[in-house]
Write a structure and sequence with these properties.
By secondary structure, the chain is α/β, with parallel strands linked by helices. The protein has eight helices and five strands. The chain has a five-stranded parallel beta sheet, sandwiched between helices. The longest helix has 20 residues.
């Protein structure tokens, strides 16, 4: 074969290869999650979602059966000095931007436990002066956030607005504090174990039910585990304070199916009127 013939064959093969490449379909909506939980772990927990974040995501999946729920663990230094929350907020913003650029219809769920709740405080624009700083989530991305859940948020004690109290996220947030948790509750009867071990499964299940009600709005054939969405959930900010606390109820409002956050399990069939 002559030199020019070889060149011609090579050119034809190149065109054929380009045609093959051009027929590969771009990423479609089927490749995108219905929702993504962006969660910041607590102080000194190993990298990842942490025990509270994992329990919250697992319960959310169970209560939104049929939806594709992805997760993202915020990458930040969750050390005792609390110096990494601003970096955590920055990482969360960067990841959310990337997700929505590829999957604009994916709904975002923000969550954080303990120090991770401080990351969420920054994201919603209410950093606690002196211990948290960083950029808030841009308003152009805020519309994709359907729910926010924080656990053991020190903002309860600091007098800072909680995520559920911000105008931009009104009605989208649930901020849960175990009334014996010294990080978020000022008063007698606190115990450190109630901060480290007092949120799974009762509070994570409650937050997942609240979040499920936001994700399932408009979907007639699906409902979360504790009643038909969206007719339940904690009334922002707090409707039923427990004895001895002015602002930290663990439970739902009076219109909610009887949910006792002190119980490790909940049986929807025990509630009158539910199938």
């Amino acid at each position: 074969m002559s030199r020019w013939a070889r060149v011609g064959v090579t050119a034809l093969l190149g065109v054929a290869a380009l045609n093959v490449i051009s027929t590969v379909p771009p990423a479609s909506a089927d490749d995108c999650a219905d929702a993504e939980v962006v969660f910041a772990r607590g102080t000194d927990e190993p990298k990842g979602m942490g025990q509270v974040g994992n329990a919250f995501a697992d319960s959310l999946r169970a209560q939104t059966f049929g939806l594709n729920i992805a997760t993202y663990a915020v990458d930040y230094d969750a050390g005792k000095l609390q110096l990494g929350t601003g970096d955590g907020a920055k990482d969360a913003i960067s990841h959310i931007k990337s997700t929505l650029a590829s999957c604009p219809d994916t709904k975002i769920v923000l969550g954080g436990y303990s120090q991770g709740a401080n990351v969420v405080n920054i994201l919603v624009g209410n950093p606690i002066v002196g211990i948290a700083w960083g950029a808030a989530l841009p308003s152009s991305l805020a519309g994709s956030v359907v729910a926010i859940a924080t656990f053991g948020n020190v903002a309860n004690r600091a007098g800072t607005k909680l995520p559920s109290q911000t105008a931009l996220f009104a009605g989208k947030g649930i901020d849960l504090c175990n009334p014996a948790d010294p990080i978020c509750h000022a008063g007698e009867g606190n115990a450190w174990s109630e901060h480290t071990n007092g949120y799974v499964p009762a509070y994570t299940t409650q937050a997942a039910a609240f979040t499920a009600s936001k994700l399932l709005v408009g979907i007639d054939h699906m409902r979360p585990g504790f009643g038909q969405a969206p007719g339940y959930g904690q009334f922002p900010i707090y409707a039923s304070p427990p004895a001895g606390s002015d602002h930290m109820p663990p439970g739902y409002g009076t219109q909610t199916p009887t949910f006792d956050p002190t119980l490790s399990t909940y049986n929807p069939s025990a509630v009158a009127g539910l199938p």
